[in-house]
Amino acid sequence: MASKNQENGIGDVEKPLIVKHNEELFMVYFSTAVAVCGSYAFGTCVGYSSPTQFSIMDELDLSFSQVV
Questions:
Q1: CA distance linking residue 57 with residue 68, whole number of Å
Q2: pLDDT attached to residue 40
Q3: I want to staple 5 with a disulfide (CB 3.0 to 4.6 A). Which of 10, 38, 46, 56 is the partner?
Q4: Which of 44, 46, 64, 45 is nearest to 54 (CA)?
Q5: Cα 54 → chain centroid
Q6: Which alpha helices (DSSP H) does the chain contain, by range?
Q7: Average pLDDT over every residue of 43-47
Q8: CA 16 → CA 13, 24, 41, 61, distances in Å?
């Protein structure tokens, strides 16, 4: 025989999906940190390697239109 909660359709729905508020904030902070680190790494790579383009152009006697 079914219990009173199961007859009303409540069952396990009363349990919250996220138990603690701190765990939710941790995931928000963690995902934000990952996104910031990724964009920082990309910007560092692009910014660090971009000045070498002019040295390569001078060394190989290339114009800007030949490089692009």
A1: 11
A2: 93
A3: 10
A4: 64
A5: 33
A6: 4-8, 21-49, 52-60, 64-67
A7: 83
A8: 8, 13, 38, 67
Taking the C-alpha atoms of residue 61 and residue 55, their distance in angstroms, rounded to an integer, is: 10
Chain centre to alpha carbon of residue 5: 41
The predicted pLDDT at position 68 comes to 63
- Report pLDDT digits (tens) over 10-33: 555 666 665 566 677 888 899 999
Which position has the token pair 């919250």? Answer: 16
The Cα 58–Cα 51 span in angstroms is: 12
Q: How many CA atoms are closer than 13 Å to the CA of 52, on its beta-carbon side?
A: 5
